[in-house]
Amino acid sequence: MNEPLPVSRVADEVIRAVLQTPVIDMHTHIYSTSFGTPVANAAGPADPGGLLLWGIDEMLTYHYLVAEAFRVRPADEMPYETFWRLSKQDQADHVWRCLFVERTPVSEAAKGLLTTLQALGLELPVSGLSGLRRWFAEQDPDDYIDRVMEVANIDKMTMTNAVFDDAERARWDAGITPDSRFDAVLRIDPVLRDWPAAAAAMRGMGYGVADDLSGGSVSEGRRFLLDWAGRMKAVYLAASLPPSFAFTDGGPGRPLGEQAFARIVLPACRDLGVPFAMMIGARRAANPALGDAGDMTGRADIEAVTNICAAFPGNRFFVTMLSRENQHELCVAARKFGNLMIFGCWWFLNNPSLVEEITRMRVELLGTTFIPQHADARVLDQMIYKWRHSRPIIARVLAAKYEDLVGTGWPVTPKTIERDVRLLLRDNYLNFIAPR
Ligand code: HDL
Ligand code: ZN
Question: Does pTM surpass 0.85?
Fold first, then answer.
């Protein structure tokens, strides 16, 4: 039955479609079990260098919650080095005390942990964390990945495979078994953020790349990217970029990172037939003592994005920006360039009030031609709350827009809604990464 809906039924149809449509999540920091896990579990002992994070202690020591715990117990009460010397469990106990006992867990990340536990049917740990620790230790990580994906209604997620990270490369060198639930993304931040360090690392891996880009640097740099993207079967390449990120024309005399971007990275993406994702606005280590929790946001220059999209019409670009102040101009930029696909409410923007504001603006300026959300989860279990919190907001925005449409006499049918929701939650992404 695909009759035009009365306005009174629109919202129900939209929430049904949004809840029932499996998501393909295009940006996470989750790994398949082949990368090992530091969490002792039913399948075996903890692998201390493992990259797949999950379970109550990893959820509680997620860097968002660590930052918030240091607001309850600032460094003059809990010195940073004292905290970092604690065991993972003791760190988790401290965060639990700060955010869930001494204070009410009303922040997005704290509430998210409770959403996840509830969705898994787990008792809230009012009498301490030992019961939850026992439950997670009884899980088989591969089965648990399936469980989390089922509860979150996700049928595929991308990893973030930072090739300049020694621990990541060591896992690839030890052998990675493909897992159809995961796609790889070749992450190359140093190439654009710290070219000399990237060049030195590539030389260390046998690629003749000079600090000044001389000699065979361009062909060797491309060979490095093609080798690793091929090895990973990367679906796109990516980098997180600072608020100061600038791009003029990548020509001689420009900063070496800009030249490397234009002469090495983007031609490699064209050869591979894959997009490049720019995640712009993260200023690393504003408070170094907080580790991963110490990064800051900053307003970036949208002109870098428009210069790049204009200069490289043969490349496709995913772009997300970290500053709320950049969101409107990013939408306008996407109206100018079909090779620009904006995605997600990234990191400090992934809060209900901002997700609603940004998604509403995107529908009004871009229709259904954007990707509203990604989890950006670092801990597997978070995939549940990141999507349980986002789906109703996306549905609320869409429902209001369809109700406006019905008001004009335009027929909105269940099939219309299903098609549009599939575009937003999976097909815009699949169509954009499809090799040209
Ligand atoms: O660079 C990135 O991909 C960011 O998402 C960082 O990983 C950030 O620390 C994060 O975890 N955001 O959620
Ligand atoms: Zn991320």
Answer: yes
